[in-house]
Fold this protein.
Amino acid sequence: MKSPKHMRIIQIDITNACVHACSNCTRFCGHHKKPFFMNFDTFRKAVDSMEGYVGTVGVMGGEPTLHPEFERFAAYISAKFPMPPEDVNHFLRPQKEFMRANLDRELTHTIGYDSGLGKRQTLLGLGLWSSMGIPYKRHYEIIQDVFLYQAVNDHTNAMYHQPALITRKELGIGDAEWPELRDRCWIQNEWSATVTPKGAFFCEMAGALDMLFDGSGGWRIEPGWWKREPEEFGDQLHWCESCGIACHTFTRDAREETDDVSPSMYERLRAIDSPRLKKGRVRVIKIDNGEISDDSKASEKRYSETMPYTESYEARYNKEKSVLFPQGFVNIVICESERPAGDLEDIVFQNLKQFKKIYMLCSNGDAYRKLSRKFANVAVVALDGCGFGVGVNKILNEITGDEFIVLQSDEIRFSDKLCEDLGKLVINPGVLHYIDFSSPTRRDTKYIRNADALTKGFAAMMNKGALSLRKIGFDGVANAVAFNEIVKKWDQVKVMELSPEMEYAPPETTIGVGVRYAIYGTGSSGNIAVARIREAGAVFVCAVDSSQDKWGCDFHGEIVQSPKWLEEHKDSFDRVVIASVFYYAEIKKRLVEMGISSDRLTVLG
């Protein structure tokens, strides 16, 4: 067993409410008559108690974004464990490959830390465990501001969970052999201690079982609780008797929403009047002389610390079905010139092909009101009776936070595929994307087809739920006489030019057939990279390593070179695999400085 101080993650379980009912959930979601929601005072104590811990402080559920005070919790924990000051938040950018970007950020902040038991892989910062549903999307901006590590899974693809509600005695494991098996439990050794509303626990399973069966609670939540050694775990160890994780039994696809339990645990669930049991979502396994019958095993898969519970990192997310993508776009056309009505009709005709609705802010309402009569999906707000900001507020009042708002002056002509292209991106709703054509840095015509000819005018994209817009407030918007005043009041870190360059391109995570690969790193990750390259029918060209001692040595049939080889032979390879976890950020930075762009990099997920 491990002291929590040696773990790479310690969780704070803020709720066991969830939108899913996964098979063999480690938090036993669905068995409770009523889910818990940690109060702020307990959360504050939990966060404060982690001072001095080196690793990832996680926020977990259930689905933590369901907590009604999630935003308040995120703000507090962020103040205690802020983002590194030098961190570049790539999640301010729209993401076409969300999971690849997530892995990139995770590896960028991963280090090797020796807490006294040897170097372990860990991430210094905050973590969030989420199923990426509507509540996650609602809090997307603050999540990307606060959490460096995100263990996300949208639950659309196969994933395998080992049953926990099995006792070792029913499996015939005796008192003599049990302590050694228990002390090697992969969850306690590889994952996390936890804090629940009932206290701190040496293991997340102990905390969840205590909550399920109304135990006596955990340790007092106080600074340094996580420094306890295994010999101090005391009475909490009795929860291991009710947990089958250390027994390495079998797994079930979580999407089946069925729990596998031993006969004695079935009786305990019936005693607490489990709602999940009443729904028929519990299956009793057959055990004969300590052996689980083959027909009781949901799969032949075994789950352990070395086996991922999904087929691949990117399998945690289905970008064809994700709710994270925009649910539509509305258009605001600002007509402050004396442009003829015919020109404005041209804008409307073009924009109605892709926008859900068009709003027109018009200086001369009488001249343009006929547009709203002619076009059913056009609403005109006359500026002759109110100011610019008041008109914007009227429109914002009608628009939902699910829609992104695309604004334009009447000089702008958008591409016919603007909404189609933007709809393929996961967009941070807190960012204002803006381009002023009196001084643009780019003139890309992918989004704005007349960009090359413009000397004035602007285009922008925003969301009414943005934190910056909320801080500007109703009055702040109402007092604006032009859109550039709103731009100036926006958090400037979250103002980004509206152009295809705003999209973030993270390294690839898969090996392509016939592609020529160089490998940076000749350790265990390098060995895995060579195997995957050859299995995929790709070409292993060269290996490089930062260690001078390895230069000139053989590595799977190739001579290890200095990293300078990559700079001098850029035409000899198509992509570089970064084959190191601990030095990922350092290697990536070095490659980019060599002139090898990030779109030529690969990391194996």
User: Anything to note?
Assistant: Residues 430 and 466 are 4 Å apart (CA to CA).
